């Protein structure tokens, strides 16, 4: 494994190679590799230089500024400034925008959490919030996390104000309101602890099934993937788990990836973290229907981990000074490893996906995924050739080594 990381690392450093995360992800058949970001980093030029590099990140997600407390701090008073700033950044950088999140039990304004509600009045507030926000960002979002973290670890419904007052129907009401406001945006259920088989994953599958059975639009399931070094589910486990969701007719995505460790960092922890980033990237690539990976910020400087989980940190792929860590090369290597891209003796290149087209709000065509396609290596106009160079290089090296 170390050898493989070294190879990816040296490949990355080679002058002819432009392999970076988004390029490698696309060459491997994903739609994007992205990152969460927030306005706190806007003045940080070193950070912004990496953020706007679309070979690295082809998608961004606002960390906080589209949450209920930012968007509707007072009943019916909407404030889109923060969210608009991230949407504008995506537009200027020519990146897909994942919009996050419409209904969550955290970062709610007090008027929602402490309100005196009936099922009817809260349903109406919920619908009003969703309709206004989805309408405002119509045409700008590639996907919406409609409902976030509705489940407890044992698979029962979380006792949020929405569940207490409305019951589990609030999920259906939320998806219906989002679909009515923007029929074209992808609608996701997003959660953590659902990345491996078990009660919570089963309960998330049950949400998908019940929405589909009721004829309600749900397009995808997001796996947050806030992992702990050494506790990250294996590639095979993640593949099996994601497959259970795609079998229900939804796409899946890794939406908030970070892999924290108990500090201080050691060589052993770094090595394990590198493997964990690799296996998670590889799992998405190997899963037909996994459309992309988003990290929950790419630099330790802006990670939510140290303040949320005291004593832990170093969970992202860059070191706090915008320098790539081993974890970065692990992620890159995972994208290459599982891509299924290879060459044969007749000079044909086999790529995992049939390119199709999606037009984001930026008006730029982005090539996206499904099944296996045989493409002559030359000419290969629809392929990202610079991105494929390291893939081909590594395939050759691995073939020689094996
Ligand atoms: C986090 C943000 O990154 C923090 O800045 C904020 O203080 C708390 O929320 N799951 C989610 C994200 O869906 O919205 C959370 O983001 C991290 C956990």
Name the features.
eight-stranded parallel beta barrel; 402 residues; binds (3S,4R)-3-hydroxy-2-oxopiperidin-4-yl beta-D-xylopyranoside
Q: If you had to describe this structure to a student in words, what would you say it looks like?
A:
The protein is α/β, with parallel strands linked by helices and about 400 residues long. Helix content is about 40%, strand content about 20%. The protein has 15 helices and 15 strands. Helix 10 links the parallel strand 5 and strand 6. Helix 11 packs parallel to helix 12. The relative contact order is 0.15. The site of (3S,4R)-3-hydroxy-2-oxopiperidin-4-yl beta-D-xylopyranoside has 6 residues, from loops.
Task: Characterize this entry briefly.
The chain has helices at residues 2-13, 21-27, 45-51, 68-71, 81-93, 110-113, 119-136, 161-166, 169-181, 199-213, 235-246, 267-286, 305-308, 326-337, 385-401; strands at residues 32-37, 59-62, 96-103, 143-148, 186-191, 220-223, 226-228, 251-262, 290-295, 312-313, 342-343, 348-351, 356-358, 366-368, 373-376. The chain is α/β, with parallel strands linked by helices and 402 residues long. The strands form three sheets. An eight-stranded parallel β-barrel has the order 1-2-3-4-5-6-8-9, surrounded by six helices.
